[in-house]
């Protein structure tokens, strides 16, 4: 993801997460940390005409990784883009030497939870009222020892 991707990412963000969307400023701050030696890694998924239909971000600090965001346009869900984005984040976490990778997912989003489970993420806790203003709880999930090796990734159905 580059600075010129922020506007189309924001269009998706506002459509997919109308109640708790990130701000443009938050994306600018995140991208400011993607330089070599930075703590962030962001990527986008595009269709052949270049339209952004998904995006994902990782924070990696001192051997700990955290999935900051992952989203796929609802018109392109089910095509393996979420799996591809998650694979990219897992490989980057491993490349950066993360011993574990954490994420939060809405408790009312079983589809996303199943995706994470296919990759080996395990539930480790609940964050009450994490998603505001809707006051929806987050399920915290963890993947121990992320790998760069494709055969170690549990979900290989979509490359």
UniProtKB/TrEMBL annotation:
InterPro entries: AcTrfase_RimI/Ard1, Acyl_CoA_acyltransferase, GNAT_dom, YpeA/RimI_acetyltransf
Keywords recorded for this protein, A-Z: Acyltransferase, Cytoplasm, Transferase
Gene Ontology molecular function: N-acetyltransferase activity
PROSITE patterns assigned: GNAT (PS51186)
Source species, domain of life: Bacteria
N-acetyltransferase domain mapped to chain residues: 1-146
Pfam families for this protein: Acetyltransf_1
Statement: the UniProt record of this protein carries the keyword Membrane: no
Keyword Mitochondrion part of the UniProt annotation: no
Sequence similarity: Belongs to the acetyltransferase family. RimI subfamily.
Database matches in NCBIfam families: rimI (TIGR01575)
Name used for this protein in its record: Ribosomal-protein-alanine N-acetyltransferase
Species of provenance: Streptomyces kaniharaensis
């Amino acid at each position: 993801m580059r600075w010129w991707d922020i506007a189309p990412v924001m269009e998706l963000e506002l459509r997919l997460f109308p109640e708790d969307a990130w701000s443009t400023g938050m994306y600018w701050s995140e991208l400011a940390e993607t330089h070599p030696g930075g703590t962030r890694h962001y990527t986008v998924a595009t269709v052949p005409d270049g339209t952004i239909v998904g995006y994902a971000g990782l924070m990696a600090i001192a051997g700990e990784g955290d999935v900051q965001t992952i989203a796929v346009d609802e018109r392109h869900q089910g095509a393996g883009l979420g799996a591809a984005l998650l694979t990219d984040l897992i490989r980057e976490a491993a490349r950066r030497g993360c011993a574990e990778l954490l994420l939060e997912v809405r408790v009312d989003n079983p589809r996303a939870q199943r995706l994470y489970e296919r990759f080996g993420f395990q539930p480790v806790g609940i964050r009450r009222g994490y998603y505001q203003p809707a006051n929806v709880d987050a399920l915290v999930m963890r993947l121990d020892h992320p790998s760069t090796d494709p055969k170690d990734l549990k979900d290989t159905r979509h490359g």
